[in-house]
Amino acid sequence: MQVALIRYTPQPEETVAAAARLCYSKVGAMEILEKMDPGQADRLLSQLLSSGHLSPFEHVSFTFAIEGLSRAASHQLVRHRMASYSQQSQRYVSMKKLEWVTPSTIQRKPETAATFQALVEEVHRFYCRMLELGVPAEDARYILPNAACTNLVMTMNARELIHVCSVRLCLHAQWEIRELFTRVKSEVEVVAPRIGAELLIKCDRLGYCDEKESCGLYPTRESTPQPAAAR
Amino acid sequence: MQVALIRYTPQPEETVAAAARLCYSKVGAMEILEKMDPGQADRLLSQLLSSGHLSPFEHVSFTFAIEGLSRAASHQLVRHRMASYSQQSQRYVSMKKLEWVTPSTIQRKPETAATFQALVEEVHRFYCRMLELGVPAEDARYILPNAACTNLVMTMNARELIHVCSVRLCLHAQWEIRELFTRVKSEVEVVAPRIGAELLIKCDRLGYCDEKESCGLYPTRESTPQPAAAR
Amino acid sequence: MQVALIRYTPQPEETVAAAARLCYSKVGAMEILEKMDPGQADRLLSQLLSSGHLSPFEHVSFTFAIEGLSRAASHQLVRHRMASYSQQSQRYVSMKKLEWVTPSTIQRKPETAATFQALVEEVHRFYCRMLELGVPAEDARYILPNAACTNLVMTMNARELIHVCSVRLCLHAQWEIRELFTRVKSEVEVVAPRIGAELLIKCDRLGYCDEKESCGLYPTRESTPQPAAAR
Amino acid sequence: MQVALIRYTPQPEETVAAAARLCYSKVGAMEILEKMDPGQADRLLSQLLSSGHLSPFEHVSFTFAIEGLSRAASHQLVRHRMASYSQQSQRYVSMKKLEWVTPSTIQRKPETAATFQALVEEVHRFYCRMLELGVPAEDARYILPNAACTNLVMTMNARELIHVCSVRLCLHAQWEIRELFTRVKSEVEVVAPRIGAELLIKCDRLGYCDEKESCGLYPTRESTPQPAAAR
Lengths: 231, 231, 231, 231
Prior knowledge:
The structure is a homotetramer.
Chain A: E1 2-8, H1 12-22, H2 29-35, H3 38-51, E2 61-70, H4 71-77, E3 84-87, H5 104-107, H6 110-132, H7 137-140, E4 149-157, H8 158-168, H9 175-191, H10 193-197, H11 202-206
Antiparallel strand pairs in A: 1-2, 2-4, 3-4
Helix pairs in contact in A: 1-3
């Protein structure tokens, strides 16, 4: 899998901070931006995050080139609807050369891994034969496995990145999509370290695990004392 | 493939008409609904559609049970983001019994169809063997084909149904998703005939084909005379 | 202000539960719905809510007729984007009879309240005079106050209702929009008591107050001990 | 009104073109971007637009600082939900200095304009008096007129800009929001001329007027011959 940040809104952290400040300011965004210094931006971002006031994070977007992701993972990925995707089409692109992903639980068993590879190759040979026989690529691909690789361009704003990472960096997420967002986080950290640092697992924000069973990082909510409302 | 309309907003056409009328009315929606008769609703819907004023159609939603759709088609389906999906998980459900879709271009070639079936069955046997060997279902499924069936619950509002049908009923759409929305349209027609009748291919609304090549239903735009602006 | 639930997805709680179950089931939604009993639905909803698995709540929508809301409040309301609105137009509807909202902090000061009323009436007389002088309604309305009433039809799915109520039922929300969602909650409770009970202030779910200052219901997060990650 | 483009996705047109090409390419977005030249980008954008394949335009966003817009117009603006807004709050910002918008139909009548101004000033004095008397700003503002100015930061992607301009540049749109998007278009044209050129009124794309009455630029659809389907 390859993940590269190819475009992003310039000066993302100042942009978020200026948009947030505008809501409480007598002056407009131009003047706020001129006077903004990095220290201020940093403090504002912290306040926004601790109070859950996340809408200003929508003003900055990040666009990634993703290559070598399995279609098992891409089918999960595109379920996140607050984002934009352009994906390599298996209808229009003939997969004469097939790349695929082998999960590590299979790789670790040499015999199983060998059968996996042989079977994927047999499937691919049959795919190519169907193309030769005049079956359209959009139909021949029905035989291709979930393991087949795909390429995407994905754009998400910072608010959605915070949300998606909160669920997809969790150890309960599927390993390939967790790897994808681990790389997404690394890419964001390079150009927007303050935003990158906020791409956190949900438990790091909640202070407890809301899954049925904890991975051990935090106890589940049931096992931690709950405050009562002063009603 | 099975498609059943399992829930929908009651009296959908009166609801759309009342919401539209509210925008231009001195009185509120309760009073408008009381006085609305079907003839009025019908005329209002026609006006909304011819003027492209589609937001009132968002107030009514349709929920479908979809069974036996291939994951090739479901991956396309969930790219429509103005909708809600719950989909059978290949991570959590072990596919010990596999159902799959065979495209008609393959079915029509007996020898190819036989190989297709034999290969899917071999893939499925290997999937089951991997489960026995302790490979998690979420990893074993990497070998499963795009042809494997999935079940979904899908909810779309009428505005989005109008949009999605406009592109997915087109002969250029992939055959399985076209079949899906042909059935969706049939289901809607039973309970909301006026809305169902508006689930049209885009060319029926545009008056021309905007694809590169026409299927013959309408000429492409290039081959039809274009009016000029009176500037 | 008047708030009436005019439409909703029938059997909303069974619908959410069936969609959730589908994700983990070998069978489709039709069969699940047939076998669902209210006790099961109830348990499933509790599990979804405690684990933050909220997407199945999107399959059920609620449509409200809202009357007599100020445009100060409606401007805030329509900032919630995961919803559908049809709103009375001040461009097309002449406000020859003006209704308006007087905040209780003004009503409590008799002299101020009297001036408020006299001034709104003067503004309205000038609005009517402008209409007589041929000023279009869409321009005459520039003089109308934020207090002027508006009517809307609003549709939200249950997931968004859970989110919006979490922020708008908070004592820090503006009083008129808090009143609106208090009524929305009451309406939902009548037809979907389990969902209605989940329309909670955010602090009731978090166990702490994430605002700068607490209203007293829960302490702020800073004043409560935070668990550390077991890293 | 002041509208300034303060941020945008760098090299927007190449980005759209690369994302579009990826869908039909064996290689990933990195390689496509390296080889893309402006002429290719231009041709690809034309093909996307003529075929209505608009999703690649979502990958580029434009962020505007908007100042001096009336709240009459901002209430309309924020109804466009595929966008992000940060708006100056009348709850938290005391409007001790009020700026407002006077429609030209009022400005053109000197006597009416004078009364308009005097009345807004009287309203503002009463607003300030209420603040002194301890009425919270969030309640005192109920007296403020629709004409009162507001500041916003708005982010829209290019697909949504194409859509919003198609309806808001129309002569039937309200004059102030039409002026806003005329300026938005001008700003985009400077940095992305090809995208800016596509920010067109809907009739320029349809070839007819879909409003009840035409402004004269194009005839209505009813008055133009309609092609029939070859069914």
